[in-house]
Amino acid sequence: MRKKTLKTLVLYGIIILAIACNQEKPKSVEIGEPIDLDINTTSIAKIQPTMYGIFYEDINFAADGGLYAELIKNGSFEFPDPKMGWEETNSLKYSLNKNSGFGNITNYIKDQNNKRFSHFVVHQADNYQIINEGFRGIGVKEGEKYDLSLKMAHAKGIDKVHFNLIDSLDNTLASVSFVPDSEDWKTYEAVLEPNKTNAKAKLKLTFEGKGSVDIDRVSLFPQETWKGRKKGLRKDLVQLLDDMDPGFLRFPGGCIVEGRTLAQRYQWKKTVGTLDQRELLINRWNDEFAHRPTPDYYQSFGLGFFEYFQLSEDMGAEPLPILGCGMACQFNTGELVPLGELDPYVQDALDLIEFANGGLDTQWGSVRNDMGHPEPFNMKYLGIGNEQWGPEYFDRYKIFADIISEKYPNIVLVSTPGPFPEGDMFDYGWEQVRKLNVPIVDEHYYQNPKWFLENADRYDSYDRNGPKVFAGEYAAQSVQTVSPENKNNWECALAEAAFMTGLERNADLVHLTSYAPLMAHEEGWQWKPDLIWFNNLESFGSANYYVQRLFSNHSGTDLISITQGGKPLIGQNGIYASAVKDLESNELIIKLVNTKDVTKNVDLNMGLKDLTKIGEVVLLTSPNLTDENSFEHPKNISPVLKEVNVEEGVVNYGMPPYSVSVLKIKM
User: Fold this and answer.
1) Domain of 607: which CATH number?
2) Residue 193 known to be catalytic
């Protein structure tokens, strides 16, 4: 059950009285007589609970360094370069004489899974230290508590190991010391309370005594995580997601599903179980773009498939996992698994369904139970492949579909016509999904704002007897796709809002929609634009985020029509519109987008007399199309709550320039 009235009241309870009041606003010139709009409250189609959701991919440091709240990078020394993320000072680096220098690390293979620990040799304790840099620094807040944990073993001559949180000037923010007192591996834990807030802290290790000690699994987590879970998710980021009231959560991507090679593909089974059981994997965005290389970008899978399912459940969202289909990313190697060798890939899909939905007497249901969730997650959707195209993909999809549908006929499969919204590849893809009777087709479009305005009628002419549509990845690009100069500006957000009225008008066909990508670290991003921005201490929603939230929070239950002269509004006079009614809150909800720089007056004829005298308007607007939200001004473009009068079933409303308005009228 999706959250409704209470969440909406909380989200918009704080009224923003002015937006960017220090900027010069364009003149609002009213255009002649009001434009008559007619609203027919007869239900056309049901709005699916999944209509507005979230696409999540581990790009832009969205998992490690982002949503996953671990603050130590490479704390288990498992990166291919085991010292990446760690800086040694006064270390023994090149000397063949083991008694010279101050200290050093030697890394050992611990088991067949290539797990590592670090063997520290200390010759002069006063001078040797090692420092972890975190993810572009370690963000800590004064007054909050942080759980430090690590493992130590085999200490010889080392009396104490000191752990200090330090700032850039080596001032101590918090500290603790441990006595390594066990020959076998032992876990040591403490709570650190920083005396100052610092976005660029580091963790420094120093030693007392001369000798050696083995260290592994160095970890630092805020206690303030989402729902207070130990080693959990970053609270402010999940709150931004939960505030969207998403109908679904698609995970884990995106191109990372496929991998640049099959060996580097995402394998869900390696992301569940205890943290010790999860295998590190290079992130496919590690060096994908020359303009934003991130050689330290790896996936620890502290955020794995169990956590994705759990997060979906927390938010009341349907889980929608995407699995590889035996094809590496076709923008990279395009490596293929022969059709005759596809069985392990199909079995992974069957086992995932069992992990999500199976009883405790099943192998993978038992794994879920061991992780603390005996109840099934009740997964209904499963995507096969991400953005694949061509005969090779559809040959593989058919094998998956035949086997999965026979064993689990209630699972709704999602396919794709490829990565582009038009062209020969797209047309071929749609021809195939129709032949294969695919239930839902995932379309992607990263285009300029003009394209979104011109394609608000995209689905008006689609075949209603074919597959349903999942607008799975879309975002207006202010410059061009993949450009590092793209902005999350108001022009893009406004164009997306206009396009979304077209998605909503076609709710009988369009069952799922989501913006992409979702998150980006201020210093660790590879792709722009993005819905949510964060650094080590702060986060904010872009203008695009507030558009998405506005539509999702007011999705309604039933589609109704809003027309001018019997025709839907698809850009006439710069106006785009859609309308729904919500049978749970007993409201009419009208979404109006004004893409012009002048006020547009409209008369909304409800066709009902029994309406409240006062309605609400949730308004998003900004005077300049280049305006953005930022860390300095995180709510520069954010919702404002207003009132409108209702007289004899008619609302006269002046749409501000460059605005998105959601009118709510009680029936």
Assistant:
1) 2.60.40.1180
2) no
